[in-house]
Structures are given as C-alpha cells and as structure tokens.
Amino acid sequence: MPLPAAKPPDGPTLFKQQCATCHTTNTSDSVRQGPSLYKVIGRHAGTAEGFKYSAGFAKADFAWDDAHLDAWLSNPQAVIPGAVMAYRQAKPETRAMIIAYLKELN
C-alpha cells in the first residue's frame, strides 16, 4: 500500500520551524534573539518595544510590508546593512507563506 502524500508545510509550521527559535508571535513571551513579530505589518522598522536593535536599524526609514519583508527574508543585510540576522530564505514560495502568516497576526 502506498504512503499518503506528505502535506506541504503551511505558514505557521514554517514559522515554527524556521523563525520561532529567535522570534515570538505575541507580546507575553520574553524577547529572544529577535523582536516579537506580533503585529509587525505596518510597524516602523526597528521599533519593537523591549528589543535592542543593531545600529543599522537607526537609519531604517520604512514600515514593514510585504515587499520589505520579502526582501528582508531573502537577504537581511541588503535591506539593512549591519543587521545581525543570519537567516536567509531563497525560496519565494516559502517567504510568501511566512509573510502570509505574519499578516494573520495583525
């Protein structure tokens, strides 16, 4: 008997696997290596309360939206030079699912 087809990962699963080590999705958990991403859409970059950002964020003059998040997840240092986030996601479809999940948190 063949095995059932594997269910492709969804946004919450991808976030848990790839982002949750460093980021939370609420305001009740303590800050981790990265800021909480709860209500990140529309938030001015570098302004999450309780998180100490790298110096490059002082020059960031944008609010997080789909395009900025997509660029950020692809190559953080290209968006904000000096950013310390090491994660990069090369697959556009994976970035899109993570961004869609973050939009659900707004």
Overall description:
- With 106 residues, the chain is an all-alpha fold.
- The protein has 4 helices and no strands.
- The protein has helices at residues 11-18, 66-74, 76-79, 92-104.
- Helix 2 (66-74) packs across helix 4 (92-104).
- It is globular.
Report the sheet with the most strands, covering strand number, pairing sense and barrel closure.
none
Distance between the termini: 44 Å
SSE order, as H and E?
Answer: HHHH
Query: If helices are DSSP runs of H or I spanning 4 or more residues, what is the number of helices?
Result: 4
User: If you compute it from the alpha carbons, what radius of gyration comes out, rounded to the nearest whole angstrom?
Assistant: 15 Å
In total, how many beta strands?
0
Helix percent reads: 25-40%
What is the typical, i.e. mean, pLDDT? 92
Low-confidence stretches: none
| Structural class estimated from helices and strands | mainly alpha
Shape: globular
Q: What is the beta-strand fraction?
A: under 5%
Which terms summarize this structure?
32% helix, globular, 4 helices, mainly alpha, single chain, 106 residues
Brief summary:
This protein is mainly α and 106 residues long. The protein is 32% helix and 0% strand.
